[in-house]
Amino acid sequence: MRSAVVVGAGVGGLATAGALARTGWRVTLLERADRLRADPAALLLWPNAVAALRSLGLGGGLAAIATPVPSGGLRRADGQYLAQPTPGTAQAVVVHAEDLHDTFIAGLGDQIEIRTGITVRSMHARPGDRPAVGDGRHTWEADVIVAADGADSTLRARLAPQSIAVSSGYAAWRAVIPWYRAPKLPDDLVLAGETLGGGYRFLAASLGDRGSSGASSRGGIYWTATVAGAARPESKATQLTLLKRWFAGWHAPIADLLAATEPDDLVQQDGRQLRPLPNELAFPVGTGGFALVGDAAHAMPHHLAQGAGLALEDAATLRALLHPAIPGPGCNAALAAYSAARRSRAAQVVRQTQRVGAVLAPRGNLVTRARDRAFGTLAPRVLDRAASVAADWQPPTT
Ligand SMILES: Cc1cc2nc3c(=O)[nH]c(=O)nc-3n(C[C@H](O)[C@H](O)[C@H](O)COP(=O)(O)OP(=O)(O)OC[C@H]3O[C@@H](n4cnc5c(N)ncnc54)[C@H](O)[C@@H]3O)c2cc1C
């Protein structure tokens, strides 16, 4: 039986582990944390992410957990539109990360060996041998080892040492205000789109009131705030106070959302990106090899909200290419094909992310004013094109 070890149980690792197990691989999943869990936040899933979920066989329950996000345009802090919503552009849905996590867990089946509390520290890639990883006490070998261990991947540091994870220059906070605590908003107020200031950004989306009638999925209001600079070391209560100060005076309902947020709702993330991208995203070894998936392969700033979407694309592509492969040259070739397909796709999305970053993220009053003027002409086209290129992806056929 073909075997795989998947290192890391984030979106990328869970999606890949389940996909391989459902296609007949014996899978061992190794996770550093003491249990499998998701952040109490939410994610936007663009059409490419939804297509990847469907291709992985996980699209069935999506309607019950996903809420469409209306096209919202871009606004200044005072609420004035910089770019009106463009009809016909790609639309996202928003899902609670814990609901998505439940979908992945259900998709793992009961054949996977799950080992939590395991920090992978070493790898072995000797010609002719099967690849292996270890935690200093045990070694796990398999035909294919999937490194889904995030932006600061231990395995990538060994396989592609030229690629370094650095700060993207932003701290970001995400929170879901549960439905029973969410502020009552005026009926004509649509939560959509993003609001930009010099070095500050705010986005909110409604998860609806699902959960209020006893449904298992989680409702409420999701928001994310991005601030130029490094992650803040203060307590969550102080971070929330800072957020209220930074976004004071921004258009409704931003102050109401922050007022309804409790410190424990906050999930702070120090944005990471890879510089440069690895030259290869898979490394044939022995009868199989290593594959990089998700942020381990292509961590990038979150301007396009595509990191989890790309991780799902990776999982769908790897599953499709490995499906017919038997250990040996077939598996080596499938991994080489994975690397070629995913390296060019990741490079394309990184390019679009950089373009969008130049529009969304200038700091300082002068540059911000120049940016705002460009919204009359150039910027909306840059943003629409970037969003549609990022969302424009078809799953591989098996
Ligand atoms: C503010 C913000 C908002 C975002 N919004 C969106 C969005 O709306 N939509 C979207 O698609 N993307 C979004 N993203 C990006 C997305 O969150 C990430 O790209 C995605 O979660 C990466 O998943 P992953 O599985 O590759 O890595 P991770 O989620 O980092 O998972 C890695 C796992 O590996 C484990 N691990 C690490 N090292 C080891 C080790 N040595 N041994 C064993 N286990 C290990 C970790 O504990 C973790 O469980 C956002 C990112 C940020 C910062």
UniProtKB/TrEMBL annotation:
Keyword Hydrolase: no
Domain called FAD-binding: residue spans: 4-353
Any GO MF annotation of the entry: FAD binding
Pfam families noted in UniProt: FAD_binding_3
Sorted UniProt keywords: Monooxygenase, Oxidoreductase
PANTHER family xrefs: MONOOXYGENASE, PUTATIVE (AFU_ORTHOLOGUE AFUA_6G14510)-RELATED
Protein name: Salicylate hydroxylase
Organism per entry: Catellatospora coxensis
